[in-house]
User: What shape does this take?
Amino acid sequence: MAKSLCKYRSAEIAERFPQICQIIGTPKYVCTSCARAASDKGHLCKPLAIKKMDKRTDEVTLPVLGEDVPQREPAALEKDKVSGKKQAKQMKSLKKLAKKKAKRLKQAMKAARRYDKVLDKVRESLQSS
Assistant: This one.
């Protein structure tokens, strides 16, 4: 597999400029991570296919992630039930993590208040002496 364009260093780009021009000559894919374009999937780290060029307007339309949802068939509806269960499980996990985070923040605030009290006592003792 060829090295992805995303991994090239600037020195390598200068050395291999003709090869890179050939790779990006007619781009068919765009990297969703770094927005580089190439003619082959293998040259990008996270490729996404570019839709065909509109000949009337000469514009390239890029797909929006999550936009093109195909028509659902009855078999796909069964998969949605499974994904619904998966989604519920993820929500439960997120709620649990949020609760744990709140608890840790509360503990940290309590420790900070204790630390402030000790600092105040030390300051008072230094001022009185």
User: Anything to note?
Assistant: The mean pLDDT is 76. The two ends are 75 Å apart (CA to CA).
